[in-house]
Amino acid sequence: MTDIVVSTSAYLAFNIVAMQDLDRNLGVEALIENANDHVWRRAFEVLLKDRPSQFTIHGPFLFMDLSHKDCKFDEVIENYKWTFDYAKKYDAKHVVLHPHGYIDNFRDETRESRKGRCIERVSRLAELGHEFGANLLVENLCYPEILFEQEEYVALFQQIPYIKSLIDVGHSLIKKWDVPKLLQDLGDTIDAFHIDDNDGVTDQHVRLGDGVLDYKEFFDAYKKYCGRARLVLEYLGVPTAGIEASAEWIRGLAE
Q1: Sequence-distant contacts of 183-187: CB under 8 A, at least 24 apart
Q2: Could you read off the pLDDT tens digit of each residue along the chain, which spans 255 residues?
């Protein structure tokens, strides 16, 4: 059966308590930076109890641009040690990494300079994750300025050891990527997807089918090239009943 996981993005802040009612056959992906140790320890006691499905983590990314020369990378390292500790303790199947943050312009330095620094730092985090036994997945981004367009993103996984891919289908829609080709090129390198939809312009994170994504084309390619990859529903503002209905429909599309 296809592994379907639900991001805590739909249960931000105090709404996390409502996630305990989520169908136990659905996994949980924790946006780990959205709470402190006290909250996560208590939340995981409730969320993961009697839940045979998978647990995953979305690593920290707010105020963290790995490409910027002034990035406090020592703090990033400590933040990811904290994250990888949680991954090890709760047997997370993956940890998601954003390769860089929002870039407002390239006036201060060139794109290639930023890109080189970014690759170096992702490589260091990949090595750290390997030391912790974590499965680190690098996500495609949809900022107006990105360092890794489709072919460059594919090339990352030949350049950096110990990483695999997580494709956010909503992000690929905004950047007008050729998704069937992307899935064909990466194949088993793709370990997971963030499933969400939008209007093709804004990263809205609405339910699949509520936006403009050609989900039939996507699932045809998914089943052909990477049908073992887990599917993480990364929605915003969708109630539990809506998430569960979406998950059931998506499982039918994926199998």
Answers
A1: 183/221, 183/222, 183/224, 183/225, 183/226, 184/221, 184/224, 184/225, 185/154, 186/154, 186/157, 186/225, 186/226, 187/225, 187/226
A2: 788 999 999 999 899 999 999 999 999 999 999 999 999 999 999 999 999 999 999 999 999 999 999 999 999 999 999 999 999 999 999 999 999 999 887 777 889 999 999 999 999 999 999 999 999 999 999 999 999 999 999 999 999 999 999 999 999 999 999 999 999 999 999 999 999 999 999 999 999 999 999 999 999 999 999 999 999 999 999 999 999 999 999 999 999
- Distance, in Å, from the CA atom of 226 to the CA atom of 224, rounded to the nearest integer, reads 6
Kindly provide the b/e burial profile for residues 32-55, where b requires at least 16 CB atoms within 10 angstroms of the residue's own CB.
Answer: bbbbeeeebeebbeebbeebebbb
Q: Amino acid identity, residue 101?
A: G
Please report where in the chains the tokens 């931000």 appear, as a residue.
12
Residue keyed to tokens 């990466």: 186
Residue for token pair 């020592």: 74
As a dihedral over the C-alpha atoms of residue 140, residue 143, residue 148, residue 150, rounded to 10 degrees, the angle is 60
